[in-house]
Design brief:
This protein has seven helices and seven strands. It is an alpha/beta fold. The protein has two domains: 32 residues; 163 residues, Vaccinia Virus protein VP39 (Rossmann fold, 3-Layer(aba) Sandwich), CATH 3.40.50. Strands 3-2-1-4-5-7-6 form a seven-stranded mixed beta sheet. It starts with 7 loop residues before the first helix and ends with a helix. The C terminus is likely disordered. It binds S-adenosylmethionine. The site of S-adenosylmethionine has 21 residues, from helix 3.
Amino acid sequence: MDPDDLDPGELAPSSLQGRRKNWNLWQVVVAAGLAVSLAWTRQFGIRRLPFRLQVPYVPSSAKQVENMMVLLEKRSGKLVDLGSGDGRIVVEAYRRGFRPAIGYELNPWLVSLSNIRAWRAGCYGKVCFCQEDLWKVDLSDCSNVTVFLTPGLVPLLERKLLAELPEDACVVVARFPFLKWTPSEVTGNGLERVWAYNIGAVRQAQQGKIGRSPVQVTKLSSGLDKS
Ligand SMILES: C[S@@+](CC[C@H](N)C(=O)[O-])C[C@H]1O[C@@H](n2cnc3c(N)ncnc32)[C@H](O)[C@@H]1O
């Protein structure tokens, strides 16, 4: 049958049906997306975290990661990244000899992304990405901790780290320094600046046993005066 013989009126209902089918498909896709994201937030507790504890995912820049590694240069042993995002700090730390290198991250998609990153870097199964709430993790055997979170969390974090970390631990913090603590070293400028804190020294300073040592003052001013 020649298509020209078809009555245009006969075509209209089927094209309408096609459009309706497409529309239904979109509705299903959107509804499924909403259901998955709702299930995810319920299951993995992002919503259950109080608002003040919620931290958005913002990856460290390459320079920021490099600065963190510079401050950890002479150290070794266990390293933990609190809120490890896509795993870039943990993978780099493993590359530089930290064992074990562990990331704690609430978001399961980011944990998957971290495992892909580890696989591409050839260290899948050698580094560990745990889908866990960092506030529930016991840090008592961590000698190196990296932190890139938000300023609102600083007081809570200070309390957790001081209560749990061993005396020889070093905490390296990106972007938002712990203002009540005296850093042992600072490096980088602007948004890529990072601070290292020696837990033993911070505890002693808090107990009023020592003031600032000349080395700390020199390093502090050389780092902070640059901005
Ligand atoms: C600013 S991003 C930093 C990511 C990574 N550390 C980096 O520097 O590239 C903070 C990360 O912490 C995660 N996070 C926030 N609260 C958390 C919690 N309670 N437990 C575990 N991860 C958390 C977020 O999902 C986000 O990926």
